[in-house]
Model the fold of this input.
Amino acid sequence: LSDLLEHEQDLPSETPDGYHVPLMVNTGLAVDAATLLKSRIGGVGLYRTEVPFMIAERFPGEKEQMRMYREQLEGFAPLPVVMRTLDIGGDKDLPYFPIEEANPFLGWRGMRVTLDHPEVLMVQLRAMLRASHGIDNLYVLFPMITNVEELDEAVKLLDRAILELGEEGIAVRRPLVGVMIEVPATIYQMDALAKRVDFFSVGSNDLTQYLLAVDRNNPRVSSLYDAMHPALLGALVELSQDAQRLGKPISLCGELAGDPSGALLLMAMGFSSLSMNAPSLPKVRAAIRRVPLTDAKTLLREIMALDTPAQVRELLNRRMDEWQ
Ligand code: PEP
Ligand code: MG
Done:
């Protein structure tokens, strides 16, 4: 089967009934290997900027960040690169910026940290904008947003960075701006968020953890951490419908997108694109190339009538076996 998958990798991620699902990659460090995929993907759906920050010895300066970001943007140009602003806290600590808290996942995390330290965010945004100058394939994504004021504040800082650079003689284009849907509160604020952004990106890893109140890294409760929970699937269906109603693209960049059965369900829900770690691309592409959209939609309808994660998995496994 793996020979077969490899041979399919240059073929479009399209269902037998002609429905195209753009596949994107998640990146963090060296781009060399990932850029080899350029002809096979729609771009970078999530560049986790905290990864290079985590291996540094101090906050990288504007020039240094600009070099890192340019490598990504140039490497994948003209494809879009979605750069997420620093998402530290939770389980991602910087050695030179320790955060000690009793409940790190409910604490000072992502946008909460960078809005309290606008000087850190401003350096990052300026570096991203400068790196994209002349290439213009930058998309900016804000993580861990819980309410619209945070988003307003983040967008204000982005606009300030653009203005500052303009005053310095660097006329950068305003990138498209997106918000991560990973805190359950945002599920119910799609209209308000849509007024402020160009696209949505669902972080299913955190949305699962927060919707189910299950620490994503605690082995004791790992059996409860399940993206196939009917509540999460229901939320994803609503999110996709809301985004379509609001006329904004919605992608998903958590692990669920890299799972072939998850990818088929997301396709059936109408997600605009799926972003995953590079090693997941072949199996997801193979699944999409084997299953007509109409069949995936039928499966989704059946799944949405089930009550438990176990029932969902049982039916999914049965269908996936039939589709082998
Ligand atoms: C997510 O939460 O699903 C996500 C993509 O972000 P991260 O895994 O980096 O928290
Ligand atoms: Mg997340």
